[in-house]
Amino acid sequence: MSTFTKPSHIGRKISRIRELRDMKQEALAQALGTSQQTISALENSEEIDDEKLKQIAKALGVSVEALKNFSDEAAINYFNNFYDNSNGTNFGTNNNCTFNPLDKLIEAYEENKKLYERLVQAEKIKWSI
Q1: CA 53 and chain centroid, separation
Q2: How far is Cα 127 from Cα 83, in angstroms, rounded to an integer?
Q3: Residue 127 to residue 129: CA distance in whole angstroms
Q4: In terms of domains, do 72 and 118 share one?
Q5: Are residues 107 and 45 in the same domain?
Q6: Which residues of the chain fall short of a pLDDT of 50?
Q7: Are 63 and 107 in the same domain?
Q8: pLDDT tens digits, one per residue of 11-23
C-alpha cells in the first residue's frame, strides 16, 4: 500500500480566501488585469507558478505563505481565538479604557467653542475694516 498524500490544491485555497475576503472573481480579475474566466481556471488549478502566486497573494492582501498554508480549520481556529468571549466582549481581553470618554467629549466641545469664538472675532475684525 502506498502512503502517497494528495497534493495541496492551491486553486481551492485561492477561492476560499477570495470568498472569505468577500471578493468576486471579477474583482480579483480586475486587480490582476485579467479576465474572470482566467480566475476560474486558476481556482481549478492544483499548481500555480510562484510569480503568479505572488501577484494573486498581493491582490488578495495576504502573503504567499498564507496562500500556500491556508486551511479552513486554521481559519476557524484563528477566528475562535481572535473573538475570545471570556470577558463578555468580542475584542479579546486587553480592552481596558484608560480615559473617560465623556471627559474627552467635553474637551472637544470646549475646544470647538473656543474656535467658534475666534472665528466670530475674526469676522468682526474683517467687517469693521
Answers
A1: 19
A2: 58
A3: 5
A4: no
A5: no
A6: 1-5
A7: no
A8: 999 998 898 888 8
Using DSSP, how many helices (H) and how many strands (E) does the chain show?
A: 7, 0
Place of cell 505572488: 54
The range of the structural domain enclosing residue 122 comes to 97-129
Using one digit for the tens of pLDDT, what is the confidence trace for 36-48? 999 999 999 989 9
Contacts of 112 (CB under 8 A, 6+ apart): none
Tell me: do 12 and 58 sit in the same domain: yes
Same domain (yes/no): 118, 79:
no
Q: Under a CB-based contact definition with an 8 Å cutoff, are residues 11 and 45 in contact? A: yes
Q: In sequence order, which residues have a C-beta less than 8 Å from that of residue 92 and are 6 or more positions away?
A: 82, 83, 84
Tell the burial category of 17 from Cβ atoms under 10 Å away from its Cβ (0-12, 13-18, 19+).
Answer: buried
CATH (domain of 87) = 1.10.260.40
